[in-house]
Structures are given as structure tokens and as C-alpha cells.
């Protein structure tokens, strides 16, 4: 799929403020600093559409982008950043759970997980929550450009083992790098298929 248009729509602090749910939508969630905003920019080949930062906690609202005038990408705040105040963390948690459970046009959630670190309890718990609630999702392992092949294989094995503690099978995943564009075509192809299903339903 070619991206010929990518437009910022709005920032929302609560579920009620979200733009109307008239287009197929894909949400991007994950821990703070995992690379959600960078990945959105990579996907649509725009450098600064979504604001990124080397300091965690950059995205604090749900930001909607309309792509090719026909589908939405939603950039969410990160979960679980220890240095954010307790109040803010629980506000973000509510924003994320409300969004995930109630957004009608959400066709797939992309859960970004940092490939450089060991499996984190908060990510495993979030995946379990999605499983229990039957929310369709894909895991995107991020920042794969930062690892040697050996480190990468070791980490992927650890993730597989951690995931299989609560899942019968490993859910759908893609290896990505926002810097190298790794995984971009695969994810866009997947989105294109889902867009077609949405227009037929
Ligand atoms: P919050 O909005 O704070 O939750 O963070 P985020 O998940 O949106 O992360 P963001 O895209 O702002 O990126 C965080 C940092 O990681 C930035 O310094 C990015 O340049 C860097 N980064 C993101 N993706 C990649 C990647 O694929 N490879 C490398 N090497 N760095 C990346
Ligand atoms: Mg962000």
C-alpha cells in the first residue's frame, strides 16, 4: 500500500473525546519509550507526524492520524513508566483499557515490546489481559537494529518461553525497526487486508 496522505486529526484525553469511529482503526500501545511514535512515523514514512522523544513519557494523550483519508492510526501513551506520578499512571491505564475495550472500530491492536530487554512482567500481564478480553492483537518487537543476531535470538527465545507460560501458542508477532524500516511492509500489508474486510462488512 502506498501512503499518499497522513494527517493529524486530534489528541484526546478521554474515551469520550475520541474522534467518531467511522474508519477502520489500528492502535499502538506498549511501555513508555518502546518506540510507538517512531514506528508510526516509519509506517507512514513521515519524519515528524507523531512526536517522539528519547525521554520516556512523551505521548500523554491518544493521538489520531487519518491515513489516505480512509483509516486511522492511534498513538497511545506508554504504560508503566515508573517515574510518572501514580495518578498519571492510573489515568493512562484507564485511557488505555477504555480504548482497548470500547473502541468499536479498532480492528487490531499493535503491542510494541522492546526486543533489547528481558521479558517484562507488565508486558506479559498486558498480553494476558488482551487474551482474556479476546482483543485481536499483534506483537511488534521493536528496535531490532540495536541487537546482534546472537543477542536477538537469545531474547526472542526468552520471550517465547515467557509467553508460553500463559499462552498455548505464541500470538502473531513481527520483528521491527523504525530506523531500518524492518517489518514495515508486513504490517502495512496486514492493515490493507483488514481495511478491505472492514469495507466489505
Ligand atoms: P512514549 O510516547 O514516551 O510512550 O514513547 P514511544 O513509545 O512513543 O517512543 P518513541 O517513538 O518516542 O521513541 C523512544 C526512543 O526510542 C527515541 O529516542 C527513538 O529515536 C528511539 N527508537 C524508536 N524506535 C527505534 C528503533 O527502531 N531503533 C532504534 N535504534 N531506536 C528507536
Ligand atoms: Mg510516543
Task: Summarize the structure in short.
It is built from 5 helices and 7 strands.
Task: Summarize the topology.
Elements (H helix, E strand, L loop, with lengths): L5 E7 L12 E6 L5 H9 L17 E6 L3 E5 L10 H17 L3 E9 L6 H12 L4 E6 L6 H15 L9 E3 L8 H17 L1
Parallel strand pairs: 2-4, 2-5, 5-6, 6-7
Antiparallel strand pairs: 1-3, 3-4
The structure holds guanosine-5'-triphosphate and magnesium ion.
The site of magnesium ion has 5 residues, from helix 1.
Q: Could you name the key traits of this structure?
A:
7-stranded mixed beta sheet, alpha/beta, 201 residues, binds guanosine-5'-triphosphate, binds magnesium ion
Can you walk me through this structure?
The protein has 201 residues and is α/β, with parallel strands linked by helices. The protein contains five helices and seven strands; from the N terminus they run E-E-H-E-E-H-E-H-E-H-E-H. The protein has helices at 36-44, 86-102, 121-132, 149-163, 184-200; strands at 6-12, 25-30, 62-67, 71-75, 106-114, 137-142, 173-175. A seven-stranded mixed β-sheet has the order 1-3-4-2-5-6-7, sandwiched between helices. Helix 3 links the parallel strand 5 (106-114) and strand 6. The longest helix has 17 residues, at 86-102. The model has no long low-confidence stretch (mean pLDDT 93). Bound molecules: guanosine-5'-triphosphate and magnesium ion. Magnesium ion (MG) binds at residues 36-37, 58-59, 75. Magnesium ion (MG) binds next to helix 1.
